[in-house]
């Protein structure tokens, strides 16, 4: 349990947003080039 | 009926009418009416794309899902965030490059030129699919409009539908795509603000994070698990996959591809992507966590999809309750206006101008576009007034039908030069047909698996399979290489 939630739920929450943010970051970098 | 709530509503509707009049200056030719002259900046295309993709389903349906299944709904976030990010990173740029090269205004315009089609097949198939899906999709949005007016203001269902449709038709027909896109920006920002604030207010009202988690556990311990109460059963896996599958539509539903066509240039797309990703995270997480807080604050609701109006009325003073009514309407209108203009483009640009009256004047065509927009809205109105009213499932069905017809074909056309005209036609018809057949025949027997997954898979498989058996268009490989090279050169900042 982390902050009352099972670790699997945290894993899903992270997996839900991190890949999208990583892809968005690629566009940010491209805009700065 | 609180005068404060009515005041907020009137102010919002007045802003939309003003945007309609402002956009009207550029809606006198076909490109102006349907793609705002391809001049839209990053913020507008980013918010417009998300506000179009997310309808009343986000505010009423997804909050209700958070209420009903808890953390299991995070699978929707996973699918949508990845779908939006992948669309902006991989689809938007080559699609924009191709559509600029062809001077396309609609997705069938693009498909016709990409596959050197001279038979109007893409226009006719596209028009049939778009018109059939949009009619019910818009009707579902109008149903939600009637419900929202009635539950917030007590106007009665029919009066709500008439007021909502009247405003949408005014600014969409007068202002065209420019008004639709800029009103989407206003509507998207309103949705963003409320879905950012509501979960924090809801969790604070429960008593903070610890009380929030304890409350959910007390209501039902399964609400805290990623598998919900279903776990790793076939039904649980099918449910999670279906939730993820909702995001596939962002890769190529025609109402969203229109935003890429209308962007000013490649630089705007690069800037819009991160905005759209941040926005969709707030939209989805906000809706789900609000719904979960609502589960503790308002247990035992007969219809979980009323949790957001309950929270808006119970947790906020009248002014903010008015804002929440506006936000629900914003989500509805930002989707309905885009669908109406998509369907209008399908009739006027793809059918009348390109098939029957290529010599028609620009002003006459844009006026016809406005008339068709109104007629389509009235069709949606008749359906909303007569059909069964609980039709949120139809939003997801139409979302899937539009996406499965277009997204697999568009994706392959952008990345696989070997894609052929026959393959694309088979993929469009097959993707759409499998969506419909799945719902009617197979869905119930296959753990209620969402139709997007078989429909999308069929679209991909048929496009690839038939393409391998037929000859690709002349010069497609060279053209794809040129587009790739073009993407290396960005316009100056």
Please provide a written account of the structure.
The complex is a heterodimer of chains A (33) and B (493). Chain A has 33 residues and is mainly α. Helix content of chain A is 79%, strand content 0%. The longest helix of chain A is centred in the middle third of the chain and has 26 residues, at 7-32. Chain A is rod-shaped, with a radius of gyration of 14 Å. By secondary structure, chain B is mostly helical. Chain B has a single domain, classed as Sodium/glucose cotransporter, CATH 1.20.1730. In chain B, helix 7 packs antiparallel against helix 14 and helix 16 (392-415) runs parallel beside helix 18 (452-469). Chain B is globular, with a radius of gyration of 22 Å. The model of chain B has no long low-confidence stretch (mean pLDDT 91). The chains are: A mainly alpha (33), B mainly alpha (493). The A-B interface holds A 3-6, 8-9, 11-13, 15-17, 19-21, 23-28, 30-31, 33 and B 71, 74-75, 77-78, 81-82, 84-86, 88-89, 209-210, 213-214, 217, 224-226, 267, 270-271, 273-274, 277-278, 280-281, 285, 490, 493.
């Amino acid at each position: 349990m982390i902050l009352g939630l099972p670790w699997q739920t945290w894993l899903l929450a992270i997996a839900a947003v991190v890949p999208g943010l990583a892809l968005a970051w690629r566009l940010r970098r491209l805009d700065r080039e | 009926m609180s005068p404060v709530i009515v005041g907020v509503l009137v102010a919002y509707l007045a802003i939309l009418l003003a945007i309609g009049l402002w956009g009207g200056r550029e809606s006198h030719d076909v490109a102006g009416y349907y793609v705002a002259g391809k001049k839209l900046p990053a913020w507008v295309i980013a918010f417009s794309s998300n506000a179009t993709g997310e309808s009343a389903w986000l505010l009423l349906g997804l909050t209700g899902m958070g209420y009903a299944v808890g953390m299991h709904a995070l699978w929707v976030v996973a699918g949508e965030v990845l779908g939006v990010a992948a669309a902006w990173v991989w689809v938007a740029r080559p699609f924009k490059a191709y559509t600029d090269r062809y001077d396309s205004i609609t997705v069938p315009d693009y498909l016709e030129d990409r596959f050197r089609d001279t038979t109007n097949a893409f226009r006719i198939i596209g028009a049939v699919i778009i018109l059939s899906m949009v009619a019910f999709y818009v009707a579902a949005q109008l149903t939600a409009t009637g419900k929202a007016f009635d539950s917030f203001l007590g106007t009665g269902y029919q009066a709500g539908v008439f007021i909502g449709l009247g405003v949408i038709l005014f600014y969409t027909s007068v202002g065209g795509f420019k008004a639709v896109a800029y009103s989407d920006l206003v509507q998207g920002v309103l949705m963003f603000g409320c879905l950012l604030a509501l979960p924090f207010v809801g969790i604070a009202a429960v008593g903070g994070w610890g009380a929030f988690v304890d409350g959910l556990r007390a209501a039902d311990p399964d609400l805290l698990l990623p598998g919900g109460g279903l776990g790793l059963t076939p039904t649980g896996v099918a449910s999670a996959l279906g939730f993820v599958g909702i995001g596939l539509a962002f890769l190529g539903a025609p109402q969203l591809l229109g935003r890429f066509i209308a962007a000013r240039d490649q630089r705007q797309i690069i800037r819009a992507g991160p905005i759209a990703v941040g926005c969709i995270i707030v939209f989805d997480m906000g809706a789900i966590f609000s719904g979960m807080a609502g589960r503790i604050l308002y247990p035992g609701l007969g219809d979980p999809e009323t949790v957001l109006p309950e929270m808006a009325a119970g947790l906020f003073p009248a002014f903010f309750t008015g804002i929440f009514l506006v936000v629900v309407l914003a989500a509805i209108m930002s989707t309905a206006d885009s669908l109406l203009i998509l369907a209008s483009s399908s009739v006027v640009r793809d059918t009348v101008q390109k098939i029957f009256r290529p010599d028609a004047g620009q002003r006459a065509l844009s006026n016809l576009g406005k008339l068709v927009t109104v007629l389509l809205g009235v069709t949606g109105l008749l359906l909303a007034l007569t059909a069964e009213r609980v039709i949120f499932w139809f939003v997801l069905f139409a979302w899937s039908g539009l996406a499965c017809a277009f997204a697999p074909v568009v994706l392959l056309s952008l990345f696989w030069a070997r894609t052929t005209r026959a393959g694309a036609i088979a993929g469009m018809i097959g993707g759409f047909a499998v969506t419909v057949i799945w719902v009617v025949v197979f869905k119930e027997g296959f753990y209620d698996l969402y139709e997007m997954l078989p429909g999308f898979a069929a679209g991909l498989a048929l496009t690839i399979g038939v393409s391998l058996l037929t000859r690709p268009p002349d010069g497609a490989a060279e053209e794809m290489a040129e587009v790739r090279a073009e993407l290396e050169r960005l316009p100056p900042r």
